[in-house]
Amino acid sequence: MQCHMWYPTHMVKTTVYLESDVVLALRRMADSQGRSQAELIREAIQTHVKKAKRAKLPGIGEFDSGHTDTSERADQLLTRAAKRGGWR
């Protein structure tokens, strides 16, 4: 009889190297909580990723014109810039 492991299709198998003391603590935690080590690792990584700040796009938030209505005046500003040759 063959035993096949079933993994959800959205999961990707990976390998992680851990210090031996961390592995021991992880095993004890999994046993005490009645959960798998893999479940605890996934949960810890998901928590960390959600808390991590996303990198900002270059230039976003770096300059402050002091104006709060720039998007509302975009046509006017672009027309004025075009007349003065304000971009190249």
Structural commentary:
The chain has helices at about 20-35, 35-50, 75-85. The chain is built from three helices and no strands. The longest helix is centred in the middle third of the chain and has 15 residues, at about 35-50. It is mostly helical and about 90 residues long. The protein has a domain at about 20-50.
Strand content: under 5%
By DSSP (H or I, 4+ residues per run), the number of helices equals 3
Low-confidence stretches: none
The average pLDDT value, as a whole number, equals: 83
| Beta strands, count | 0
**Helix-strand string:** HHH
For the record, give the distance between the C-alpha atoms at the N and C termini, rounded to a whole number.
Answer: 72 Å
Q: What is the radius of gyration computed over CA atoms, rounded to a whole number of angstroms?
A: 26 Å
Structural class: mainly alpha
Q: What composes the largest sheet?
A: none
Helix coverage percent of residues? Answer: 40-55%
Shape: rod-shaped
Strand and helix map with partners:
Blueprint lengths: L19 H14 L3 H15 L22 H11 L4
What's the short version?
With 88 residues, this protein is mainly alpha-helical. The protein contains three helices and no strands.
